[in-house]
Amino acid sequence: MLTLTCPCCGVAAEETELVGGGEAHLKRQGPGSDDRAFEQYLFLRENPKGVHFERWRHAYGCGKWFHVARDTATLEVFGTYSAQVSAPPDDIRAVIFERRPGWSWREFA
Ligand SMILES: [Zn+2]
């Protein structure tokens, strides 16, 4: 079972206490964007086998959203962090680089 530590309240919550919110760090597209960029924002999502950044909500706890860096194949969690940032923090990236040398994803390499 997946267990994530909520960075907002500090509780180590089991998956049944959480609700997944999909991919993290999406670039929002507004009315001024072209159709391709808006389609990508609305419908297209990454689904990697390996390191991924996701949004989760501590639904049966503090109720707050947060981000998780984890491996989708092994369920290994690299860390959780605030949903108020637009990119993974350096300490989370350092953990990923230490455990997955050569890893890169989008501009977060
Ligand atoms: Zn919480």
TrEMBL record:
Keywords: Oxidoreductase. It holds the Pfam family SoxD. One of its GO terms (molecular function) is sarcosine oxidase activity. The keyword Oxidoreductase applies. Its EC number is 1.5.3.1. One of its GO terms (biological process) is tetrahydrofolate metabolic process. This is Sarcosine oxidase delta subunit.
